[in-house]
Each structure stands twice: as C-alpha cells, then as structure tokens.
Amino acid sequence: MSTAPQAEISAKRTPEYCEIAPPVVVFHNVSHRFYGPPVLRDISFQLGPCETKIVLGPAGVGKSVLLKLANGLIRPRRGHVNLFGQNLNHLSEDALYSMRKRTGMVFQEGALFDSLSIRENVAYPLRVDNVLEEEVERRVREALRFVELEHTIDLFPGSLSGGMRRRVSIARAIINQPELILYDSPTGGLDPVTSTTIIELIVKERDVFHTPSLLVTHRLQDAFTMVTHRYDTDAGGMVRQPKGEIDRNTSFLMLNEGRVIFDGGFEELVACQNPFVRDFLA
Amino acid sequence: MPIAEIDKSTKSIILTIQDYSIFIWNTMRMLFSPPRYWSDVMLQADIIGVGSTTIVILVGFFTGGVLAVQSAATLSQFGVSGITGRFVSLTMIRELGPVLSGIMVSGRNASSMASELGSMVVTEQIDAMRALGVDPLRKLVLPRIIATVVMLFFLTIVADSFGTFGGAGVTIFMNHQDSTQYFTQAYEFLVYSDILQGLVKPLFFGFIIASVGCFYGLRTTGGTQGVGRSTIHAVVTSAVLIIFADFLISQIMVSMFVK
After folding, report:
1. Which CATH number fits domain A4-102+178-281: 3.30.70.2190, 3.40.50.300, 3.50.30.20, 3.40.50.150?
2. Predicted ipTM of the assembly
3. Coil, helix or strand at residue B92
C-alpha cells in the first residue's frame, strides 16, 4: 500500500497535525433502540485524527451498533454523530454514500461477496469509482500483499479459512486509502495464532499509515497487544514496545448496559476503580 | 386476546404495505439518475429469462394440450369442436400464458431473489455494500426489476406460442382434426385487444415478482431461519398479487375493449 495518495495522507499526520486537527468522529448523547429496550444510551465520545480507540464490553452490549452509527449505516434515535466534521443526521442517503467512501469497514465475519473472486472483492471500492483497469490490478495486488494473501487473488471466499477472509476484508477496507477504519470484532471466533496475525495487520496499518480507527472487541488480550506492541518496518513484523512504553495514540472506550463507563488511556484503564471495569480486566 | 391478535396482525400488514411503498418509491426514483448497472441487468436477464425458458415452454405446451383436451370434449357436445383452436389461442394469449408464466417465474425467481438477498443481509454483505458506498437498491434491486419485467414479457410470448402448439398437437394427433382449421381458428379470431391484454399483464407481473422477492429478501431478520421465512413470504405474496393484479387488469381491459 505504498501508493502516492496514501503516502501523502500518512505524511500529513505529523505530531503537530494530530494535536491541532479536529476529531474524526464525535458522538453527542447518542441513544439508539431497535424494537425492544434501548441498545445504547447517551453515548458521547470523540476519536482524534491520529487515534485508535478500542471499544470494549461484553457481547450484546451494542458495540457493533455503535460502529454502524459511526458511518451512518444506522441513524440514531436521539443525539447525533459527526463524521469528518459533518452531522450525519443532516445528510441525505446519497450524501452518506459519498461520506462512507472515505471510511473503511471490516465486518465481524468478513462480509465478503460470495459470488465474487477475491480480486473482485478487494477491487470493489475501486470499481465503484471507475478506476482504470491497470490501476485496479496494481492496487488489488498491493492490498493483498499487505495482508500477505496475494496468492489467493483468483480464489473465491468460500475456499478461504475464517482468518483469511478477515484478512481479505482488511485488504478491501484499506484499498481506497480511507481516512477512518472501523473494525468490528476482527478476531472474534478465531484461534489465538490467527488472531495475532490479524492484530499485527491492524497494528501495521496504525503505525505505518497512522489511520485513525475504531476497533470493537471483547478480547482483552487483543486490546492490550495493540497498546504494548508496535510495528517494526525494518523487522517486518510486530514487536513489543520497550519496557514501560505504550502506544499513546491508542485509547479505550468501555461499554456496559448501553452506557459508556470508561473513556481514556491504558494507564487510566488499569487504574480505574469502577467495579465492572475491574471485573472485566480480572 | 383475539382482539389483541387482530390488532397486532392489522398493524403488521399496514406497516408492511407502508414499507413496501417506500421501498418501491426509493427504487423507482433511481431509474432517473446515474449510476446505472446495465451489466447487472444483463446478468439478471440471463438468469431470470434464459433460465426460466425451459419451464415456461413445458408449462405452456402442456397447458395448451390440456385446454384442447378439455375444450374439445365440451365443444363436441354442441357440435362445434372445430373452434378448438380459437378457444385455445384466446385463453392462452389473454389469460393463461401471462398468469402461468408469472406463477412459474415467481416460484423460480421471487424465491431465489428473496433467499439470495436474505443471505446477503444475514451475512452483512448488504451492510458491507452500503459501507463501500454502493446503494443496494440501485445495484441489486433495480436491475432485477428491469430484467424481470423485460424477460417476463418475452417469456409470455414463448408460453403463448408453445401453448398454441400444445393445443395443436392434441387437436391434430389425438382428436384427428384438420391442422389448417385449427390454426385458422387460432389466428383469425384474435384481435389486437386480445394481444394487448396478454402483453400488458406480464409487465405488471414482472414488476410484482422482482419487487416482492427483493423486498422480502432485504427485510430478512433472524439468521438462516429468517431466510427461509422470507422465501416463503416472497413466493406466496407474489403469487397472490399476480392473481389479484390479473383480476384487476382483466376487469379494466374488458371494460375498455368489450362493448
């Protein structure tokens, strides 16, 4: 993914830029319900321009709903969501489609299109923008190389394992050089080795391109790996941070019973005295 | 408690009609703005039209044959079995060709649309499509509606033709009547209003089949069990709506052309 626009975007994200640029996502007192009791109540938080926020919480607490609210796949019943400075409540469905093109999303089970080959799945966002065929082929191969699955280009999703499908989904999410990436339980249901591979890719995307992201997970070990590790470009892999150091751009948001019960950094999280947080970390 | 049940069912039906109306409005608006996915229209035309040709030929042929068998038996009691051709062609072209093609295509394609789109909903492929900036109504629904309307029109012509040939087969080879008499009767008494009636219906039926199939597919909830439910709803609703629309169109056409 060493394309010129991506290089420009990542070069733009200097420490100064990260200090002064406006937040990418802002939730203002967002509440949402489907047919039963409220799923989310009065959710407020923001995601900085270079930040990775890990959304933690037990299964069924509304983490995936929160992610879908963030790019307008669902409209909130109350409150509003600002994405790239625009209130999504005020946008038409057509305007939302343009807005979503600026984000990448990795779904829980990958959500690859069964009837399309891996090449066509990854190329999908480029086809939407009518990118030239040679450019499509080059960028698809680059994206698949990034997730180390270039050899699967002619296969169909049905012939890939669960972990490989998630990796292809990451390739599809990043091919358009998004300004925000949303990861919905990217390691859910995977074995520990495959989970580590996926987390390594997410850390790589974070440290190489500095793309802001919201990552939903209920696996604490994944969340902590994100903070305590960094991607070493020279070594070509994820390495542990030197003792006492953590990734300062990675923060946590914890939900329980539809409410935010913690929003802050790693050190605050481990020092938090909230009984639910303590139980969750135990 | 029965009152509460009736109340709940009535609200559910009204809500479904409201959702369907909004769905149709949002889809049809897209006819007038780009992008248009013509390659998907062609693909669906192949799946729906070419794929349904065999069953439409068989159903048309045997229905024509049955019509000839039954009508000849009755008509001979009045000494007019010679007009079997007229009876078969009129019935096929005005009524049975469009309705049977519609029911067959509905059974084959409304179910496949509902199950395909339903599976895409439960595996989040529809959400993925929206997240990638593509409107599923434009990409999945509109091409299916256009393809079904166009292809059912031609399938009906195929069913009409094979129905007339099926009737001819029975009349000539089993009832030993004259083939010239059969085809003359079949052709000469047809008027433009009969053909118009027979060819207007598939346009409406095609629209019903694709819109109902896609509508139930896209509102699937509840995992794989929900996909099964959507498929049943799609087939039953589209079949009932086809018969209902047939009644309305026939009524309007008859009042317009039969003085």
Report:
1. 3.40.50.300
2. 0.90
3. helix
